[in-house]
From TrEMBL, chain B:
SMART domains: AAA. It comes from Notoacmeibacter marinus. Belongs to the ABC transporter superfamily. Macrolide exporter (TC 3.A.1.122) family. Residues 8-237 form the ABC transporter domain. One of its GO terms (cellular component) is membrane protein complex. Pfam families: ABC_tran. Keywords: ATP-binding, Cell inner membrane, Cell membrane, Membrane, Nucleotide-binding, Translocase, Transport. This is ABC transporter. Gene3D superfamilies: P-loop containing nucleotide triphosphate hydrolases. One of its GO terms (molecular function) is ATP binding. The keyword Nucleotide-binding applies.
């Protein structure tokens, strides 16, 4: 019993003696465990919270917008097999005039059923529900109310059906339908500029002339029902009422956004932790291997004393186990803190009324086991070789490393490299696997930095093509109805307006063979200057007459090429299906664009030129007058302030990027320190004698340090191009996998992305070896030289 | 030895090792003079202070008290940089365990020194002087113990040092190989005029020295001048 205890004591003392090396490994392992916990914890919290929120507030399964559908349809639809509940609402987009605010504000107004909604029920956060009989009481969505400082009792006006109405805020609410609210034409949520207004059904229907009719339908399915056939049925039923087509949860903006967030959080768990666990395996292997080499004689002695092979095997496995325990514990602590903290932050950001955060024991068990596995896998080879060492062999000194001359030596001699450099190069050639693994480890650190840092540049390009090149208008005006082109003249007469251009948005379903896709065709005149179609190559293009031009992504989804015929079914006010040729394809970062020449559209519909969207530029000095005039515009359904959109987009992105850049830099540094510090320590341990003898020969500390630092720094240098390449490949993978219907992320890799990644990794490697160099400086020359290795 | 130039002089040289509560006097006041061209052998039991003296003379260690001069240069005043410079320019070391760099060939091991020395001989010449012209491109692992020690000696003398300090140079070798090594040392001492100090446990080796210095408890117990020196080959141990 006492012998086992003595061995345990040795274990602990070894662990304490080598703490900086074990700490460096533990940090790498901890990063892997923490990222895993964080990713699982956050995605689970988001999913659980959303699920509970959806259940409690009865979030619908199918959504459809139409125009003035007779209320009798509600009963017909409710009787469709598979439908559990139906909620019909009167809805509209409108502009608000908030006292003290210069800019117009856009809002989505939805009716509240007299008995309270059965689906998509808002949760009251403050104040009270409006009196169903009242004519001017409204509830606002809480983030919008807060951003605009609108408290219960405050008043503002809204233009409803062309008439300005005074409204009174009576409460704040949150709804699962509008977790992520995004205004028409906007790219990101802006709580100050876009809000949701709930109003009693009776009052709203009266104001909009919708008594006995509805515009928006939400449907809850029975658990066994499949959405697709019901969506088709709804489309058929509501098509005569200008339906843009029913959509499932997957296409509902707010829900789709949260889906994307959860997917990205999940993806994190599959990309980063394996890298950290792999590097842990390598580092443990390197360090335990060296310890076993140094302790040969002790191993022989222990065996001579009667310790079994198994006892020796476990001794070294346990040492690695201690590293795993430390790394996993640290990872648990940091991961739990990050996971809960970030989930809280997410819930606040998304304005969930509460956060359901249940500790996922699975994630802890899985990450803990993975940590233990990584450490034992790393130690296995060395521990096994220690266990198999015969006592007699163990107690005799190891043979010196065998170096042999080969063609590389001949080459090096020709190059007249100095002897210290020769020592560095021969060591790399002598232990190629270790050198290769170190290079791989360091290159992964570079890759993490490259693949995380390319985002800002990609977004710069998106912003440049999306805003500066394509959308040069200051304001986009959306109307609730299409209007003839004379509306352009009205817009041009608004105060401060410098330039005016019209466009028409046509909702369609595109069909080709068995595939179909919902899209919006933009009909426009050639040579438009404010809103332009700019290809990814930077070329300004127009839709050729006589057909439609598609973005490449949309064409690919439908399996279409230039010259193919596509069936275009128009929804909304323009009815009918037509076969049109695809006249051109254009590569774009944003959206699933489809374009048509305005005259082609006019001929098709046999109509006078129409517009539904007006782009304008405004004299900044007259913005207040312009905004005031907008508030009076009767049919305005919305407007997007492109300048603010641009600023908001850039701000949101740059905040996120700053945080994520720092996190990834930290992860890259952890890997570098783990690899470089341990590599240098092992170098020092193996070379102490050589280096001390050089000092005795009269080499200065700096000259000797060159050999120690040179090898690691050379490996770090070799790792750079490989790291750039891996980083490039990962970036490519990421841009491909992030491509969705909404956007494609262009891969923009600048020299500065590579160079900053390299500088961080080389700097961290240098700092690590400098710490080891301090040990070298303190080395006791006499005692090293007097002992036999 | 009088009339010859003084190379090393020590004055009351003291070295104390403090281990925990215990103070150990490795050197307890040593006054010694070594002359140019001299071959001195230091004898004495383990722990008598021979190696400590050699390390202080060679600039590897600092004295606790007392002073050391190399010609007019006071070593006891020098910091790490000065001692490094001193070792680089003036001293050659030979140790019991050769301490060759395993990743460098015999020639390259010597080149380590000739690359940084002020007026070195070529590596080939140094290796020829120790009789290893035919082993230039062999790595240490490909050489016998005696050959490795001769490479170490070639490396030590290649810079034409004024002093050669040898700590048990034959300690790890059998007597036949040891004699070859001693022959090399004697040959270099005579040919290059390098002052040589040899520490050994093999008392017989004293017979090849000009002067024999006995150590006991950190002090010089006795000094003896050989009127007649033996050739290494005549020594038997």
């Amino acid at each position: 019993m006492t012998t086992v205890e003595a061995l345990d004591r040795k274990l602990l003392r070894d662990f304490i003696r080598l703490w900086p090396q074990f700490l460096a490994i533990s940090l790498v392992l901890a990063a892997g465990v923490a990222v895993l916990l964080m990713s699982f914890g956050m995605s689970a919290a988001l999913e659980d919270t959303r699920k509970t929120y959806y259940e409690r507030n009865r979030f619908a399964d199918i959504f459809v917008d139409a125009r003035s559908v007779p209320i009798s349809f509600v009963e017909i639809i409710r009787r469709i097999d598979g439908i559990e509940a139906v909620e019909a609402r009167v809805t509209t987009f409108t502009t608000l005039d908030i006292p003290g605010k210069i800019d117009t504000t856009v809002a989505y107004v939805a009716s509240l059923a007299p008995a309270g909604p059965v689906l998509n029920r808002p949760t009251l956060r403050r104040g009270q529900w409006p009196d169903p009989q009242s004519t001017g009481e409204v509830v606002l969505n809480a983030p919008f109310a807060e951003a605009n400082d609108l408290w219960p009792g405050d008043r503002f006006t809204a233009t409803l059906n062309g008439v300005k109405r005074d409204l009174t805020v009576v409460g704040w609410a949150l709804s699962p339908e509008f977790i992520y609210t995004i205004g028409p034409g906007s790219l990101i949520p802006d709580d100050e500029d876009y809000g949701i207004v709930w109003m009693p059904e009776r009052a709203l229907a009266a104001l909009l002339d919708r008594t006995g009719a509805f515009d928006n339908l939400a449907v809850k399915l029975r658990p066994s029902a499949r959405p697709k056939p019901i969506i088709d049925m709804l489309d058929q039923l509501l098509e005569p009422y200008g339906s843009w087509g029913a959509i499932g949860r997957d296409e509902q903006t707010s829900n789709a956004f949260i889906d994307a967030e959860i997917t990205q959080l999940r993806a994190l768990a599959y990309i980063l932790p394996p890298v950290f666990l792999g590097i842990t395996i390598f580092l443990v292997n390197m360090v335990i291997g060296r310890i076993v080499a140094l302790e040969r004689a002790e191993i022989g002695l222990l065996k001579a004393l009667g310790y079994s092979d198994i006892a020796i095997l476990f001794h070294y496995l346990l040492l690695a186990g201690l590293v795993a325990v430390c790394g996993v514990a640290l990872g648990y602590a940091v991961g739990s803190w990050l996971s809960y903290g970030l989930a809280r932050l997410y819930a606040d950001f998304l304005k969930f009324p509460y956060l359901i955060y249940t500790v996922s024991w699975n994630a802890y068990v899985v990450s803990g086991l993975l940590g233990l596995f990584a450490a034992s896998a790393g130690a296995a080879r060395a521990a096994w070789s220690a266990a198999r060492l015969a006592p007699a062999t163990a107690m005799s000194p190891t043979a010196p490393p065998r170096f042999r001359r080969n063609w590389i030596d001949v080459a090096l001699r020709r190059m007249h490299v100095s002897q210290p450099t020769m020592m560095i190069l021969r060591s790399l050639i002598r232990w190629p696997v270790r050198a290769a693994m170190s290079v791989l480890g360091l290159s992964l650190a570079v890759a993490i930095l490259v693949s995380s840092n390319f985002f800002p540049d990609s977004l710069d390009l998106i912003i440049d093509t999306g805003f500066h090149q394509s959308n040069r208008q200051h304001v986009v005006l959306f109307f609730n109805d299409t209007m003839d082109e004379s509306a352009l003249e009205d817009a041009a007469r608004l105060p401060g307006v410098l330039q005016v251009e019209g466009q028409q948005y046509l909702p369609v379903i595109l069909r080709h063979e068995h595939r179909q896709k919902r899209a919006v065709i933009e009909a426009r005149r050639p040579g438009n200057d404010l809103s332009r179609i700019v290809s990814a190559e930077g070329e300004i293009v127009d839709a050729p007459p006589g057909g439609i031009m598609l973005s490449e992504r949309l064409a690919a989804q439908l399996g279409l090429a230039v010259g193919d015929m596509v069936e275009v079914e128009f929804l909304g006010n323009r009815k009918g299906a037509y076969d049109l040729p695809v006249t051109r394809l254009v590569t774009q970062y944003f959206g699933l664009g489809a374009y048509m020449d305005q005259e082609t559209a006019d001929r098709l519909f046999q109509q006078a030129p129409q517009v539904s969207v007006i782009n304008v530029t405004v004299d900044p000095a007259r913005n207040a007058a312009f905004q005031a005039a907008l508030k009076e515009l009767p049919r305005l359904g919305g407007r997007a302030m492109m300048v603010e959109n641009r600023r908001g987009f850039e701000e949101t992105i740059s905040e996120n990027i700053l945080v994520s850049t720092m996190v990834y830099a930290l992860l890259g540094i952890l890997i570098t320190v783990g690899v470089a510090y341990n590599g240098a320590r092992i170098q020092l341990s193996e070379r102490a004698r050589e280096l001390a003898s050089l000092r005795i020969l009269g080499f200065t500390r700096g000259e000797v340090a060159y050999i120690l630092m040179g090898e690691i720094m050379l490996l770090a240098l070799i790792a750079q191009p490989l790291g750039w390449w891996i980083g490039w490949a990962v970036a490519k993978l990421m841009t491909d996998s992030f491509t969705s219907d909404l956007y494609a992320i262009p891969m923009v890799l600048k020299v500065s992305t590579f160079s900053s990644a390299s500088l961080i990794v080389l700097g961290a490697a240098m700092a690590s070896v400098l710490v080891v160099r301090r040990r070298l400086d303190r080395i006791d020359l006499v005692s090293v030289m007097k002992t036999r290795e | 030895m009088s009339g010859q130039e003084l190379v090393f002089r020590t004055d009351n040289l003291t070295k104390v090792y403090q281990t925990g509560e215990v103070k150990v006097f490795a050197l307890a006041g040593v006054d010694l003079e070594l002359f140019s061209g001299e071959l001195a052998v230091l004898l004495g039991p383990s722990g008598s202070g021979k190696s400590t003296l050699l390390n202080i003379l060679g600039g590897l260690d600092h004295a606790t008290d007392g002073r050391v001069w190399f010609h007019d240069l006071e070593l006891t005043d020098l910091g790490d940089r000065g001692l490094t410079r001193f070792r680089r320019d003036h001293v050659g070391f030979v140790f019991q365990f050769y301490n060759l760099v395993p990743s460098l060939t015999a020639r390259e091991n010597v080149q380590l020194v000739t690359d940084v020395a002020r007026d070195p001989m070529t590596p080939e010449e140094a290796l020829e002087r120790v009789g290893l012209s035919h082993r230039l491109d062999h790595f240490p692992a490909q050489l016998s113990g005696g050959e490795q020690q001769r490479v170490a000696i070639a490396r030590a003398v290649a810079k034409r040092p004024e002093v050669l300090l040898c700590d048990e140079p034959t300690g790890a070798l059998d007597s036949k190989t040891g004699i070859q090594v001693l022959e090399v040392l004697k040959h270099l001492n005579e040919e290059l005029g390098t002052s040589t100090v040899v520490i050994t446990h093999a008392a017989e080796i004293r017979k090849m020295a000009h002067r024999v210095i006995w150590f006991q408890d950190g002090r010089i117990a006795n000094t003896e001048i050989n009127d007649e020196r033996l050739e290494p080959a005549e020594i038997d141990w």
